[in-house]
Input
Amino acid sequence: MTESEINQLDRPGNYKKRRTIIDSYINIIFKMMADGISDNLIYFYVISKGYCGKRKSLWNYIYCIEKNNYPARTPMNPKRIMEWVYPEDVIRIRRNGLLRYLLTVNPKTKKIAIFYKYHIPIVCATKTFIRKNTH
Output
């Protein structure tokens, strides 16, 4: 390298700052993390303030900011947010399970125990209505 090229290395070039969709929310995320607020609350707060990008990328930004700037914080598990995993105490009844329960006439087939356990009134009324009108 010549002497002039070496001298040019002393002066860094002016590069444009890379613009992202999260730029207007970075201060909010940093301040909330400094206050010790959980990642889930930060995530939903940023969404409520009008974030319109991909939710996975928002979670990745929160995770990376936390990992790089606040190593003492324990990261939250994003599965409940990103993949909609229900808590263990929530019973989810799907439409096909409900229809299978309502339309099963053969007493030998196995029925879903959730409906027997909780005796949901509308399901019982619908079942009697279907039984009366199909026979």
